[in-house]
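tmp note - Diaminobutyrate--2-oxoglutarate transaminase
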Amino acid sequence: MTKSAVRRGTVREGAPTRGAVRDAAADARARVLPVVPVRARGLTIEGADGRRYLDCVCGAGALALGHNHPVVLRAIREVLDAGAPLQVMDLTTPVEDAFVAELTRTLPPGLAGRARVRFCEPAGKDPVATALAVAAAPAGAATGRTGVLTSTDTGHGSVPSTEDRAPGAARPAGTVLEPVRGEDGVLPAPDAWMREMRRATAERSVPLIVDETETGVGRTGAFWAVEHSGIAPDVMVLSGAIGGGLPLAAVVYRDDLEPGGAHAFRGNQLALAAGAATLAHVREHRLADHAAALGGRTLARLRSLAEEFSCVVDVRGRGLMIGVELTAPDGRADTRRRGVRSATAVAVQRECLRRGLIVDRVGPSGNVVRLLPPLTVTEEQMSAVLERLAEALHAVERSPDGHGPPGAVRAVSDVRV
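out:
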C-alpha cells in the first residue's frame, strides 16, 4: 500500500477483500467503528477519509500517553538505532534492566522492597495464569490448593466467610481482584472492601493477586489502583499501559512466593523501552494526580449532565476511567431487556462517531459507554469530549426510533490536540 493511496483514502476500497480473511471479532469491531486510521497524535486519530476524531478508547487504555507521544517514539528509535537485538528469550538486557528499575520505583509500598518481576505472554489469559502459577506454587506443593477466588465470585462487596465459602472446603490457592472491573461496566471496588479482602486473605494465608491490566499506570488517579485502598498485594498482574502502547505483560510478586522454572518470553525490547519511557513520564509529570483531578471534575460534570437524560442510569468510575450506563429513554420499550439497553448504547456510540468522538461499550449487556482518554488530555479537550457526548445523547433521546438523525462526522480542527 503506497503513501499516496493512504492520502487519497483508497485504502477503504481494499477493506471488503481484507475483511474476508480477518478474524470475526476484529471485523465486527471494525463495523461498529468504521474508521480507517492512518495517522494519530495524542488524543486524535485521522482517518483515511481525512476526518479527525477524538479517541476516548486509546487501545482500551493501553495508550496512557496517547498516540505517538514523543518520549515513546524517542525510546523506540534509540533501541532501533543502537542495533540491539529485539528478542533474546531469557537473557537479560540493559533495556530490560532499565524497565525493571523504573517499574520498581512505582510499586506500592509494602511490595516494592520485596518485589520480583516475571515477564509473560502479553495476550489473552496468560498474565493471570502466570500470576496464579506464581501464587499456587508454594501453597500447592504443601497443601494441594488449586482453587481460585475472583472478584466476580465475591461480588465486589462480600468477603469470604470464615469457612471459606463452604464448611471444610479447601482454601483457594489465590484470590484475584480487579480494583475497577472495566469490562464488566466500569465498577470500582470500594476501598473498605479491598482492605477487608486483604485482611481476610492474610488471615487465611491466601495470596492476594490484584489485576492492574486496565487500571495501572495512573489511569484511576493513583499510579496503581490498589493504592487507593492503602493495601499491598502479594502479586500484581501488569499489562496494557506498561508497554507504552506495545504488547507487554509482567507479573510482580513478593519474593517469598518465588516459583520454580523460567518463562521463555522475556519481553520485546521495543515494548520494554517504550514502557520504561511511559512509566517514567507518568511518574515525573505526576499524571496520576492530573487524572485524579480532571477525572473528578469530569465525573461531576457528567453526573450533572445525566439529570437531563432519561436514558442515563448511572455515571461511575475513578480518575480517567469512566462509565456511563444507559437504558432506553422513558416510555420507549421494556427497559429491563438487555437488548433494549444495548441498542441505546449502540445508538449513542454511533452518534458520538458522527460527531468525531470514538467511545467504547462494555458491560454484560454492552450498555455502558466507556471513556478512556489518555492521561495527557487537557481540560479543553475533555470539554470537547463531553460536548460531543451530550450532543449524541440529545440526538438519541429526540429520535423516535432511538437511532438519532443522520449527519456527517463533525470535524475537530477547532480543538487543540
